[in-house]
Amino acid sequence: MLIDRANSGRASDAGAGIISPETSTRDSSVWFDFAIRAARYYPTLIEEIGQHESGYAKCGLLKIAVSHEELETYEQTKTFLIERNRRRLGGRHNLHEISPNETREIFPPVKDVVGALYNDDAARVDGRLLVKSILSVAKLEGLRVLNGSVNRLITTRGRVTGVKLGDDTLSAQHTVLACGAWTNSFQHQLGRTLPIEPQRGQIIHLFRKDIETKSWPIVDGLRGHYIVAWPDHRVVVGATRECGSGFEPCLTTSGVLEVLSEALRIAPGLAPWTVREMRVGLRPVSPDGLPILGKVPGIEGAYLATGHGSTGLTTGPYSAKLIADLILGRSLDVDISPFDASRFLNNT
Predict the structure, then answer these.
(1) Which helix (H) or strand (E) holds 80?
(2) In the Cβ-directed half-sphere of 325, how many Cα atoms lie within 13 Å?
(3) 199-217 average pLDDT score
């Protein structure tokens, strides 16, 4: 059973869906190894949802510098990524440098290029389509979906035995809290601290009917912003990373300015494009940037799957598989102890 109150600002509804851990500059080896496994799980997931559309496709990713002021940062980034990938992945990575002319050929809106790395293995996925498709398949397998907000968890002798939904009591042997940015709303009921905070991200969809975008790669700049092309003459540009934003999934003038300014700095050819849509998502972030996965320490029957931050569409589906395997008593194909909630949860 899934209970979903469909919060406005859910991260999966707004995320750009970039799947390319090989080009992430995060220096956590724990996160990197996990994200690589998560990215490689996607073909299995897509096969399981069959004919249902997800927007998933291998499309490649460019990590580029567009000014000489960025050249030093680019060289440092290139060295870090190539050495890290060689050390962690051996020959199983396809990250390599390409020329400025090659860069402009595969992504025409860029103009000035002083350095470019290309990852053949990068992919993208549409969060809204993916969630819809997974739900459709799960319902065929017997999933029951209820819309509403859980009032409280039901705890009996140190074990969560269900939830209260309105006037109804729903019993369950296992309860998974996959509440995204709203996870800490249950901390007092569990008697534990859940240090998940919302981080607002604003992204903008641009459209140009007369330009074919199907074969364009993702473009990742050196200032934390990106451009993601989709087959329907559309590109997505983003995103802000607003800590301390609270739970307001709203667009701001400064956020829109930041996103568009950086997009046009990287790819000035996007200037005449039409603004088609703007979205806002609230990412669930943990203090150390790692997800929180597994059992709630000291409480039976309760599990956490949250804190994926800006890489939720990369690592979220694989996390869900692992939590399901854990509940079903299956052996896990990765050690999730680094993500255990005990690193944060203390009696309150």
Answers:
(1) helix 71-89
(2) 14
(3) 97
Sketch out the chain's domains with CATH numbers: 60-128+201-285 (3.30.9.10)
Identify the bridge partners of residue 147 per DSSP, sorted by sequence position: 4
Sheet with 150-156: strands ordered across? 150-156, 159-165, 168-171
Say how far apart CA 284 and CA 138 lie, in whole Å: 24
**pTM (2 d.p.):** 0.94
For residue 158, what are the contacts with CB-CB under 8 A and spacing of at least 6?
Answer: 298, 299, 300
Distance CA 310, CA 205 (A): 18
Residue 180 phi/psi, 5° resolution?
A: 55, -135
Write out the two tokens for 290.
């790692």
pLDDT > 70? residue 348: no
CA 36 to chain CA centroid, nearest Å: 13
Cα-only R_g, the chain:
21
Rounded-to-integer distance, Cα 158 and Cα 28, Å: 34
Q: Letter for the amino acid at 348?
A: T
Task: Annotate 101-149 with DSSP letters as a single string.
Answer: HHHHHHSTT----SEEEEETT-EE--HHHHHHHHHHHHHHTT--EEES-
What's the pLDDT tens digit per position in 238-247?
999 999 989 9
Written in H, E and C, the secondary structure of 256-280 is HHHHHHHHHHHCHHHCCCEEEEEEE
CA distance 204 to 239: 8
The torsion of the CA quartet 164, 165, 168, 174, rounded to 10 degrees, works out to -50
